[in-house]
């Protein structure tokens, strides 16, 4: 069987496959051929020669970077195997956001699974994570790779938001949520919880919400939160309503247009009280698009790989946990990947 480091190894541009001559999620400079796990900008950037990804990821990249984000694109459905220079590549759902994929790379009897980012709990906006059997090397993220991170049930956090809206009918609930994935997920959870009123969104969310709608994820009535009319009457119309925008939008003057706002933030990092306090968040919602500690460790046990490689986050703690379980593990110490909103 081929040595794992001969099939995939970290480089300054990203994980590189020498026999296939392609990169996984390259973020430092353009490459000739890239396989992309999902559409977040710290994994998917424009300018590459050839890009292979799930159709929904390609649609997201086109919405963010324009239709010419790559010289050539190839859409691959989940479970569809293709050959790149003799290396087999296929995708399995990662459960992170719409189109998110684990990238399975196979060559000379070796199967390696690169997760990108993933989560295990139910998400009504994308297919759930599917463990890949007979995995020799499992490459896992570790964004929340510390035992202190144990996220509460999503429905519990959405119920807190719904109760706050009901208890504060004269205030505007301004919820910070990452524009791709988190915002659409919060909107869909609100719909499933019975919130049938219009939801107001920041302009940066519009194209991405359209991509989700085109993929069959119904989000209900969405209205622009941008105010052309700055009159008091126009501002007062937002009382009792929910506004969703990127977190940074509420840190400047943009949020001041809404009457008596309740500032919320949907992120796994909201379990860290100091972070919520620093951002002036009145309603912290612990809603994450990443696996928490229990999901990370349970997934490794379920996949049961011969070797565990860890990247994107708290690598050392997960390596230590694996060693205590008698598992072979190592950190990749990849650079260039930003801390997402969680």
TrEMBL record:
* Single Gene Ontology MF annotation: RNA endonuclease activity
Q: Ranges for the Metallo-beta-lactamase domain?
A: 31-159
Q: Cross-referenced Pfam families, in alphabetical order?
A: Lactamase_B
Q: Which interval of the chain is the signal sequence? A: none
Q: InterPro entries of this UniProt entry?
A: MBL, Metallo-B-lactamas, RibonucZ/Hydroxyglut_hydro, Xnuc_lig_assoc
Q: What is this protein called?
A: Metallo-beta-lactamase domain-containing protein
What organism is recorded for this protein?
Hyphomonas atlantica
